[in-house]
Amino acid sequence: MLHVPVYREPGRFAGWLANYGIWSWGDEIVVGFTVGHLQTGAGFHARDDRRPFLPMQARSLDGGHTWTVAPVPCRTPGGRGFSADEHVRPELSAQDALARRLPHLPLPCPGNFDFTHPDFALLCARTGLGGGTVSWFYVSQDRCRSWQGPFALPLFDQTGVEARTDYLISGPMVCTLFLTAARADGAEGGGVFCARTLDGGRTFTLVSWIARAETGHVIMPASARLAPKRIAVAVRAHDGRGGFEGGRHWIDLYLSEDDGLSWRWLAQPAPDTGRGGNPPALTRLHDGRLCLTYGYRAAPFGIRARLSADDGVTWGEEITLRDDGGCHDLGYPRTVQRDDGTLVTVYYFNDQPDGERYIAATLWKP
Q: Using an 8 Å Cβ cutoff, are 232 and 273 in contact?
């Protein structure tokens, strides 16, 4: 097991990879995240909300051993960051840029993108959380070296749609997105659903609800295709007690056997993800097993994993990838598998509560 730095700068806050995405082509791996400024004593996340968060991406050409970092090469509303409005003051937000009609506003997608292009990638983006959240997406056909967009996503008759990058491709013009909806009352995390395009991104329709939250929240789906018609989706869940940091936080797994038309609860692979919870990353391994990775936000703080050999019905013992975090402000992983079987799990981390938040990768064999 090897831990390597991806991005680390004193005084900076880098984080929340689960909101952005990871893409791989053999030993070439690209991962997205956001970078702002550190401020100690700022609460759950030690960031300075008076300064912007801007989207970044890191690229490795050697299977995750070394990385180069650059801004995400895409147009954003008002030149603002995205998928981070909840971490900055309103005047710095993408939502403010949309309200003021600043360029570059999300526009209708022309469609006819070939999702099976060998260098294809899709990146989802959003404003904030809860009611009023607007989402859009970008498309790349050159391994994230450039992004076309922003292209608007519909609200699907919801009060808000919180899009994070999670999708499955099943044909040149067919792509399914897995998304979070706000509650009817405008609160965050009313449930998760899947939406599909049949025309290369020009239009999307809501296919089905995967899970809804009666109390607490159900958010941040992570999907894996098990067979042509079988899909597993892991979700981040909270029972709603004790505010955001209180109560119980866990990860549930749902299964569809009809290509996303209907879903049933399958298992609870991670019964406890610590204070505030953490989203799942779900990866189908070359040998057919499922791998779940997630941050653990209770002492000892760190990154953990579980494996399933029966398509998610049962799960093995928890695997500790690392347990040396300084506090609970960590996690949000993304995981891909190299051709040689090595897993590359990328996440945000800290060594001490007042230290910078940085991006690291763990290379490990399941």
A: no
Cα(93)–Cα(86) distance, integer angstroms:
8
User: What is the spatial distance between Cα 228 and Cα 19, in angstroms, rounded to a whole number?
Assistant: 27
Instruction: Give residue-wise pLDDT tens across range 134-145.
Output: 999 999 999 999
92, 351, 69, 178: CA torsion to nearest 10:
-70
Q: Cα(273)–Cα(277) distance, rounded to whole angstroms?
A: 5
Give the strand pairing for 135-140 and 264-270.
unpaired
The reported pLDDT for the residue numbered 241 is 82
pLDDT at 28 over 80: yes
Q: Are 63 and 345 in contact (CB under 8 A)?
A: no
Which pTM was predicted? 0.97
Apex 228 CA angle, 226 and 229, nearest 5: 85
> CA–CA distance from 66 to each of 320, 340, 362 (Å)?
23, 17, 12
Q: DSSP alpha helices (H): ranges in 208-288? A: none
Predicted confidence (pLDDT) per residue in 220-232, tens digit? 999 999 999 999 9
| Cα-Cα-Cα-Cα dihedral sign, residues 357, 165, 55, 186 | negative
